[in-house]
Design brief:
Blueprint: H1 36-71, H2 88-96, E1 100-105, H3 107-112, E2 120-124, H4 132-141, E3 147-151, H5 155-160, E4 165-170, E5 176-178, E6 191-193, E7 197-201, E8 207-212, E9 215-221, E10 228-232, H6 248-256, E11 261-266, H7 287-306, H8 323-337, H9 340-359, H10 367-378, H11 382-390, H12 397-415
Parallel strand pairs: 1-11, 2-3, 2-11, 3-10
Antiparallel strand pairs: 4-7, 5-6, 8-9, 9-10
Length: about 425
Amino acid sequence: MTLEVWDRPDAQPGPAGSGDAAPSGSADQPGSRWSRWPRWSGGRRRVIVVGAATLAFLLIVVGVAALRGRSGADLPLDPRNARPGGSQALARVLDQQGLAVDIARGQGDLLGLDEPGRDTTVLITGTRALSEETAATAMERARGARRVVLVEPDTFLLQSLDLPVDPAGGAASTRSVRADCVADGIGAADTISSVGRGYTTTDPSAAACFTFERSSALVTVSAPGAPEVVVLGAGEILSNREITRYDNAGVAVRLLARGDRLVWYIPDPRDVTVEDTTPTSEIPRALGPLVFLGLTALLATMLWRGRRFGPLVTEPLPAVVKAIETTQSRGRLYRRAKDTARAGSILRTAACGRLARYLGLPPGAPARAVAAAAARTTGRPPEHVLALLDGPPPATEDALVALATDLSTLEKEVHRP
């Protein structure tokens, strides 16, 4: 007896010598539904890897930007900032004058420097980052200095330091302001840019310079046994953008180079403790980059989950239905339902559309306009054509057939040369 085994056409042969045929549902078959899973999974893994790499790159960019901001590359009035808002130009001029410039970014750097002496000027920029505790620490550290320059301090800082100076509003409306005073390092003819904010003082011994409408851009307060405090409202004269205008450079150099050393203190908001009192915002600086990073991650997720995994797949239909067969089937449905009114309306609408296109009328032209144009072309009475295109619906099948015949005749007459 002979036993013959017939393999299925879609079966794959097994390993040589095994004598077994792979099942039809095996994952090795390229046509099985399981064989598509590795390819889809691989594409998904690629998308996840690309998304993770993009997210890591963004984190690196944000970290580098934060480090650059910490190093002073982006901080306003920072001696290492070469941008228009920085003060690198002034720092280089002071260095060329032989002045030792010590930069302290944060309270830790300030306390780590040598204690300022009588030949030292302490410049404090970014005063809005100071709190009551950090301001007191800075002034205590600078108690032996010759001069302390506060750049655009607000009311809170002035009150916490017990200085007889009050903010008086914005800058002058003119482009420049003359000093009109004589102070240490300031001449009466000096002119600076009118930027920043103005101040008033209640101390009769204080010197107020660059005054416009009872508001001074520079106020100097002296007290026995304490360093001279200069409140500078025109902080922009120290920036790279304004340093070359008017007498800004000369005033800045004479204001800061009164000794042999300059301590440039840039407060850090992170030095403010939770228990400390400060009116400044408690929103961290990293909130902006974090929001940007979150929006970028959201956009990446939308692109990841919203895109298609590959091109659209066309599925072959079991049968191809011709357009004429569809039209005939719909007509049979209308006939079975005896809906002559709807069938007549469809015939009239289609005829009006074809006549309007041929007669040069706009799409969707009313039946009255089409009837008038068709009547002029064919010579028929307009009321007869209008009754044909927009008359009462046919009530019987014979009336429907007659309507179809009349519409066809009208179209032939219109198309007749």
